[in-house]
Amino acid sequence: MVAIETFNLTKDFGKFRAVDGLNLKVEEGEIYGFLGPNGAGKTTTIRMLTGTMRPTFGEIRILGLDMKKSELEIKKMIGVAPEEPKIYPYLKGHEFLSFVCEIYGLDKNQANSRIRELCEAFSVDYLDKLILEMSHGMKQKLILISVLMRKPKVIFLDEPTVGLDAKSARILKMLLLKYSQEGCTIFMTTHIMEIAEKMCQRIGIINSGRLIAEGTMEQLRLLSKTTQGSLEDIFLKLTSSEDNILQIVKEL
Hints:
The protein is α/β, with parallel strands linked by helices. Helix 8 packs across helix 9. It has ten helices and ten strands. It has a six-stranded mixed beta sheet with strand order 6-7-8-3-9-10, sandwiched between helices. Strands 2-1-4-5 form a four-stranded antiparallel beta sheet, with helices on one face. The radius of gyration is 19 Å and the shape is globular. Helix content is about 40%, strand content about 25%. This is ABC transporter related protein. Keywords: ATP-binding, Nucleotide-binding, Transport. Pfam families: ABC_tran.
C-alpha cells in the first residue's frame, strides 16, 4: 500500500515558489529520508503533508485518503514531530501528554504504561516541570513521546535528533527501525547524512523546491556517478559544486 503520495504538489509565497511540482510515492513500512540544503523546501513540504499548510495547488494522499476531503481522519492516523516544538508553555509535561491522550481518545491505562516505558527509555524525569522551564532538547523528547506513545501509522519527523543526547538519539533510531518493521511509515528530514544513509530505504533530495534525485543508495550513486561515495559525497555533488566548496575552504 502507498502511505504517502503527492501529485504536482506546489507552494507559492507571493512570487517565491518554495515547493515546485513535487511528486512523491512512499510505501507503507518504508523509512524515507527527505534531504536538502537549508531553504530547499523540506519543512514546507512536511507542513503540507501533515495538513498544517495548504498547498497552492497539487494533491496529497495519505494512506489512500485525499487530504482535501479527509483531513481530520488523516490527522488521527499520523504523528508529527516538528523541528521547533511549539507547546503551550504553561502546561506541565504530564498535562501536555494527558491532553494528547484525550484528543486522540487513547485508553488511559495503556497510554500511561506506554508513557512510563518511553520516559524511562529517554531518561525523562521532568514531567512535573512547566514546559516554559524546559530546554529545547527536553521539549523535543516530550514531543517524541507524545507521538511514539500513539504508534501512528505514519510518522513525520523534521530534524528529530536535533537537541537529543547521544543515548536518546540512538534509542530513537532503534525505535523507528522497529516501528518500520511493524508496518509504520517514517518520513524524515535530517542534516545528518550518516543517519539517513544507515536508516533510510530510499532517499529523496530536494533543491530549490524541486526533487532532483530519489532512490536507494545504489541508485543515487549511479545517478551522481559516484560509485563508492558516501551519501554526503552524493548530496554535495547533486546540490552544489565540489570545486566551489574546495575553493571556499582554500580562501579561508
